[in-house]
Amino acid sequence: MDAKQAGTDAEATLWTPPRMEGDAGSDVLAALEQVPLFDQLSGRELKKILRILHERTYQPSEVVFREGDPGAGMYIVRKGKVNIVIRRPDGSEQLLAPISERQFFGEMALLESAARSASAVAAEKSELLGFFQADLESLIERDSRLGSKVVWNLARLMASRLRGMNDVLRQQRQAEAAVPEGT
Questions:
Q1: Is 92:85 a contact under the CB 8 Å cutoff?
Q2: pLDDT of res. 16
Q3: 0.85 exceeded by the pTM?
Q4: Is the CA virtual torsion 138, 118, 31, 16 positive or negative?
Q5: Dihedral (C-alpha) 46, 48, 54, 60: value to the nearest 10 degrees?
Q6: Structural domains of the chain, with CATH
Q7: Helix, strand, or coil here: 34?
Q8: Which residues have C-beta within 8 Å of that of residue 50, sequence separation ≥ 6?
């Protein structure tokens, strides 16, 4: 086992199945319904997803993952808030996005284990649900129909974000072209 795999396995041991007692089960299902990755899934299908999720509590300022770490999966904020930050050349951090309850981040790691492009840090005590690449692969093997729905939703989400980034870049190019030379 290489060091990267050992680190991933050690991290996995810190996650547990979500608590389902009392209103917690409906709370988790309500959170899942807000995630575009699980869009248009039936209640029965959402419950299947729920059975393969993991949960972990992070304390304020605790790192969920660091910029440059290999991606392992995506995270849904059940309670609390997580900041997505990048490190500037001077060593300071720049906030890219605050992620609040029922929002998610890190979904590209479901497709590849590439290095994380930013860090995720708990801004306050936060309960996160984890859905990892191995969970998606297992779902595809066990229930190919449900797995393919999730993958198609992921593809649509990635396409939408790519279109949005293209629009931003197009607007930047237009703004640069509108500035007269020499100014």
A1: no
A2: 67
A3: no
A4: positive
A5: 10
A6: 3-176 (2.60.120.10)
A7: coil
A8: 18, 25, 28, 29, 32
pLDDT of residue 6: 41
Per residue in 65-117, pLDDT tens? 999 999 999 999 999 999 999 999 999 999 999 999 988 999 889 988 899 99
Residue with tokens 């297992």: 138
> In this structure, are residues 119 and 96 in contact, taking their beta carbons and an 8 Å threshold?
no
Tell me how far the alpha carbon of residue 93 is from its chain's centroid: 20
Distance CA 18, CA 169 (A): 40
Low-confidence ranges of the chain (pLDDT < 70): 1-13, 16-17, 19-25, 182-183
Nearest of 120, 132, 62, 44 to residue 86 by alpha carbon: 120
The dihedrals phi and psi of 53, each to the nearest 5 degrees, come to -75, 165
